[in-house]
Specification:
This protein is an alpha+beta fold. The protein is 15% helix and 34% strand. The chain has a domain of 134 residues. A hairpin with a 2-residue loop joins strand 11 and strand 12.
Length: 350
């Protein structure tokens, strides 16, 4: 096998050459040798050996550490390896790709959460006079009979009731998305549409970023100004309405915010006491709303509380559904202004 021989091989070769040189120097026919000639050959052989020793030392100095090369160890006889005892292998470590991240558009479910809220209430009421029977659990002014007893369906004065219709249950959810947090609110109480006890949906609302949609409190009202009272409807004269809508909100800074909403229109035809005298009066006359209500609001937060102003612009109308032409009919532009607020008196109570 070709290649550069190792240092040990160099040294053996040079020593062999030295011994050979000494043998050649001493060899020759005895008859031809003289003492002087033999001495000259011996000096030349010794000089050759010294030169070879110097060369060996130079070669050894070239090895790392200057130490002579160790003789190669004899190969150990092959011994059959005993079969290894199978050990329990640890479970493989989970493989995570570097920089792994959810695909764009996938909700970050680890940060999502759901909240449940509500109240279980019962009101004990003794009415010295009388409310309309379907509304006896609340003080709705339009349902207070003014001639009781004597009015049909009013009955006698004095009535005691327990009511749990103020009880409510709701669920909120918060789901982070690449477009902002998606917030939802679904809640109901037990005041059904006819004033009896049944499921009455209060909110079915969704919101992402600055856009909200579904049913919730009207942008025209100020829910934070609602006083802490037991009555379900709140004080007389307070704006209170939940309606389907599309709402846009924005905040100029930490203390100033505004909102614009398009809300479901609603209006009622009140014929007053004339219908009681002439039931045919106003037959077929119903509300007619062609455009959504437009509501804008501005709210200012202060250290002492908040103040809020809301403006509504709407179109109200009526039509005769029992007439082929829909006449008589009519439309009017309506508007309103609602200014409200709350003052902090003790701690966070406003």
């Amino acid at each position: 096998m070709s290649g550069t021989p190792r240092d040990g091989t160099h040294r053996l070769t040079i020593v062999s050459l030295a011994v050979g040189a000494l043998a050649l120097a001493l060899a020759g026919p005895a008859s031809a040798q003289s003492t002087d000639d033999l001495k000259a050959r011996l000096d030349a052989a010794l000089k050759t050996i010294e030169d070879l020793q110097t060369r060996v030392k130079a070669l050894e100095a070239q090895r790392p550490g200057g130490a002579p090369a160790a003789a190669p160890a004899a190969a150990a006889p092959a011994v059959p390896a005993e079969p290894a005892v199978a050990a329990a292998e640890p479970p493989p470590a989970p493989v995570v790709a570097p920089g792994a991240a959810p695909d764009p558009g996938v909700p970050i479910t680890e940060a999502a959460r759901v909240e449940l809220y509500g109240q279980a209430m019962v009101d004990a009421i003794y009415d010295f006079k009388r409310m309309a029977p379907d509304w006896q659990a609340t003080m709705r002014p339009s349902q207070i009979p003014v001639a009781c007893p004597g009015s049909p369906g009013c009955g006698k004065d004095g009535s005691f009731i327990f009511s749990a219709r103020q009880s409510s249950l709701g669920m909120r959810s918060f789901v982070p998305t690449p477009y902002g947090t998606l917030k939802t609110d679904l809640s109901f109480d037990l005041f059904d549409a006819d004033g009896g006890m049944g499921v009455h949906w209060m909110r079915a609302w969704g919101e992402i970023g600055q856009v909200g949609f579904g049913q919730t409190e009207s942008n025209f009202m100020d829910l934070d100004a609602f006083p802490s009272i037991i009555d379900y409807w709140g004080p007389s004269g307070m704006v209170f309405l939940r309606t389907p809508q599309l709402k846009f909100t924005s905040r100029a800074d930490r203390k100033l915010a505004w909102a614009l909403s398009f809300e479901a229109p609603s209006s009622a035809i009140d014929t007053g006491k004339v219908t009681a005298i002439d039931p045919s009066f106003g037959a077929g006359i119903q509300a007619h709303n062609r455009l959504p209500d437009l509501v804008g609001s501005v709210r200012s937060e202060q250290d002492w509380g908040h103040v809020r102003a809301a403006l509504i612009l709407r179109q109200v109308g009526y039509q005769n559904t029992q007439s082929a032409s829909g006449e008589p009919s009519g439309e009017r532009t309506g508007y309103g202004l609602n200014v409200s607020g709350a003052v902090t008196v003790f701690g966070k109570d406003g």
